[in-house]
Description:
CATH topology of the largest domain: FdhE-like fold
Strand content: 5-15%
Amino acid sequence: MVQRIVEAARIQSLDPSAIPRLRMPERATLFAARAARLLQLADASNPIAGYLRLMAALADAQQRVLASVEASMPPRASIELNQRHSMPIIPALTDERDPAWRDVLFMLLDGIEAAGALTPPLAQLVSRLRALDAAALDTQADAILALRFAEIDPAAAPFIAAALQVVWTDLASRIDMNDLPWLDAPGVCPVCGWVPVASIVRVGGAYDGYRYVQCGLCATEWHVVRAKCSNCDSTKGIAYHAMGTGDEADEEKAAKAKGAPLKAESCDECGTYRKIGYQDKAYDFEPYADDLASLTLDLLMGDAGYRRAAPHPWLWPEQKEDDQ
């Protein structure tokens, strides 16, 4: 079957209503598919294979916990106010976060322990997380959601982020996409206002040939025209990079990158990059999992002078003193 690839200029000329604007998270399969992809990517050649297997166990626990979670929706008046002002309707940065997220965290820790993958350092981390009181946990959650890097405990953050993901994915999966407003600010999720992790060019059905970015918190996906920066909305200075490209000529580098299932899309206007995967080249591509598993590409982009548009919620950088 020949896949339909739609050029950016053609997309811009189409009636926007003809392009599916959103893909809401598939509650029954989201985390299970992520866990399966992480295990698939955790081969012997991957330098963080052991960590990917641990995160696969965490994603598997997320799927089981999600089946029993129903977080409290914000008041309807609050949702309607955000709709009227073209703001995310269930914002991540809120004083009304459902305290049940902490129970979700402890259930995830139970799942990790039941998986039998605890090394001594991980067992100590789990014990430390269980010992934190509500205020300390909420302080960490606030720092993660606000991207206040200097306040984030990088070892504990993936597990806290995972619990928040379960809660916001639950909320997003129960929202009618027709209730989501068009936002004034580019690059943020219309459900929760958080940032995307990576993007995917999908195949099949109404989504065929279109690029969607995936929220790192609630997993909602929204359409972004290809060859446009998903961070600053610029169409200038966009370039694509793939593993296996180095100091060769630009023409040769572009030829190598063209057939790669995973690339980094860089923007010279804002100096950032975000990864993009192509489902026609790797059907099982899962934005969150593939982004985490391609750390070598991050190193390549850092050497090229670009910075990530947003961190991966399961891989937080250690903060040096001069960064704080």
